[in-house]
Amino acid sequence: MFKKKNIHHKKFGLLKHLQIQAGPWNSLSMDFITQLPSLNNLDSILVAVDRFSKMAIFIPTYGTVTALELAQIFIHHVSSKHGLPVSIVSDRGSLYVSSFWTNLCQQLKISRDL
C-alpha cells in the first residue's frame, strides 16, 4: 500500500481582487526571476510591472540581494524615474516581508499587498 504524504506547507488563502488603478505607476507588481545562467556575476532579474499600463522594467541583479540592496535598486531604477507608487504587489518572499522593507514602505506610505 502507498503511504499518504503529509503536507507541510500553509494552506493557501483565498484569492483577492486587486483594485483597478487610476493611472500609471500608482501600483506595481514586483518579483524576481532567479537561477539564470550567470553573466558578470548577475544571475537574477528583478521585474517591476506597472499594473495600469503593463509597462515592465527588467533589472539584472544577483540572487543574494539583501533587503537594503532591494531598496537601493528600487529607488535607483523605478521610483527615481516614475515616482513612488501607492502600492506594491509581491509574493511573500523573505525580502518583501523583512522588517527593513516593511519599515521602508511604511515610511514612504506605500501599501504592500502580499
TrEMBL record:
Q: Name one GO cellular component term.
A: nucleus
Sorted UniProt keywords: RNA-binding
Does the UniProt entry include the keyword RNA-binding?
A: yes
Instruction: Give the molecular function GO annotations.
Output: RNA binding
Q: Name one GO biological process term.
A: DNA integration
Q: Where are the transmembrane segments?
A: none
Q: Which InterPro entries match?
A: Integrase_cat-core, RNaseH-like_sf, RNaseH_sf
Domain Integrase catalytic per the UniProt entry, residue ranges: 20-114
- This chain belongs to the protein called Integrase catalytic domain-containing protein
Species of origin reads Austropuccinia psidii MF-1
